[in-house]
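FAQ
Q: What does a multi-component entry look like?
A: The components come first, one per line:
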Amino acid sequence: MSPIDMSPEGAGPASRPAPPPMGTRLSVCVGGGGVGKTTTSAALALSLAQRKRKTLVITVDPARRLADALGTEVGRHAQPVTLDRAGGMLFARMPDSRMSLDDFVLWLFEDPVQRQRVMNNPAYRELGDSLAGVHELITIGLLQTEIDSGHWDEVVLDTAPSRHALAFLTYPSRLLGLLEAKALAWLAALASTADPSQAEHKPKSGLFEWGRSKAEAIMGKIVGLDGLRNLSALFADMVSVRERWAGLARRTDHLLRNPSTRYLIIGAPTGGAMADAAFLVDNLGRNGLKPSAIVLNRAESEPPLCEQRVMQAISDALFDVPEQHLLALRNTLETMQNEHQLRGQAATRTMSALQDIAPAGTRVLRLPFIHRSEPSAIVIALADAWLATGSDL
Amino acid sequence: MTTMPIGISSLLKAPVVYVTGKGGVGKTTVAAAIAYDASRHGQRAALVEFDDGEAGERTLGADRSHVAHVVLRYDKSLVDTLGSILGAKIIARALVSHHALRRLISAVPALREFAFLDRVCALASSKRYDRIIVDLPASGHALDWLRVPNAFARFLGRSPLGVLGRRIHDEVVAVGMSEIVVVTLAEPLVVKETEQLCERMKNELGTVPSVVVVNRVMMPDPDGAWEAVVALAERHPALASDAKELLDILRARSDQVDDTEYAFGLARAVQARHVIRLPDAAADPSAADVAQWLCAEASS
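Then the predicted structure of the entire assembly, as tokens:
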């Protein structure tokens, strides 16, 4: 097939949409920054594993602290989580972004010569991390590989902590648009300026030829000749493997729209997180999707009973310790009560605001504020909280 | 005449200030507070956000009138940038409204970041503002952004885009022309990410943050509370399990205080010029409140 074959079927049989293997359910967790999304996703995955579902959590954990807490490692492959609770049913995959980009190129290009050429291209080297949509591509590439493996009952995807994380939802269709549109003919034509061996495939129609030279002139004017050559070479390589991109994009689009795929919006009791949640509900809606649940994390309800009982013991003069220690404890408990109250008010306020924005049929759940600092303790407590919501979550 | 107390904006000398940090640490709030403080000190200040001005809008709230809030939109920025290269906006507009060409242009890597920074550069050279405070995206991305103009200059050499890249770098990114404020939290996960950010900043941009703001810092509990609970557990077996649970909570609280030290240690290690702490506020604070806290901390 010539690299500029523009027929929509040009992608070939490899790219026919394949349904995900029976039984693998995908849960996509989205939310703004700072809501505890990574921890919450890990806890969701743990709760699924505790229900004897073989679960994989795909999460970005640059600090590797969660990895440490779970007794697993950041790496290229799914790693077992050694927490006792997981009972051997939980695995984690924590990709590193540059590593994943190179992995993606390895996957995309089967020809080692071409692969090397791409990796050496200055456009890729300098700007690879910033390539339009590259993070989305990495996400869908990873996700698809894991779903295709057929290893998992459940896959939990922790997306980037951003409002724009949902960009990956539309990426498959945008990519298909790019790959199947006229733009590809322009890219391919430009590519031929970089690689004269492809020039013979160039359509000779007058109008196209005219357009091509115009496009080339304008691009040349913007990025210069060297830039045009490097970019064109990159395009040429990308174009030649477009069947693989297109196949991936189609299958992922299918997966993301599969009715069994669930979207969970994670929020926290702050104005910013609230605005992010509203934005995400809206954004999902525009993609014809609906969140299964909106989850309010760190929602304090009742202050821990132990605090009230100890406070009571103090007022009953139940124990004799130096006055100074007693005073310190009393002050601390009062500070804590004050914090509980403020946090409780914020949680109630946010909860009712979330109920207002939740589409019909979307549950609004709350997960408690965990008064612990070790990540493993928080993940375990939150997993219990997920189980206690009683829903199939 | 009353003397204005020293504010955060006076700790920053460069005309352009980039504010970044991990998602959710309060970047926009700090950015808005710096802009607010600059305007209160008689400077013409602009808060710049990309694509989405919701967070800045919310934080500036009633203080909006003091600060120009500039929300740069990608489509418009791209037309402006291409227009300045091609010599006429009308050509640029025709270019991006052409279906196929638009897609072609969208395939140029990092053009989005480039166009935005080009607009920051245009704002700076317009001389309409004394201070431009830019609310950058979260950590990792922020560096990718600031690297882009120089990367274009290296990769595209003497082409128009390459030349423009050099100019943007020299005018609004280079050391001396801009400063970076990093916002972090006293949480190990966040501090760790901040550490990686500062390391990359040094390696890739050859700079260090001027100011590190440690946000939502918890005050330590008074000494003695721990001992009181331990005594309670020993003397009243009926309350032992409550006491144990309470000790866990107290330990978590003191861990958080230790994390503050960890965050401060980091700020010292990266040689940030100033380290400022902000208290843990229960509700979402306004830009004016935060400016006042920053001000109190900057003077102390």
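Q: Is there any commentary attached?
A: Sometimes. For this entry: DSSP finds twelve helices and seven strands in chain B.
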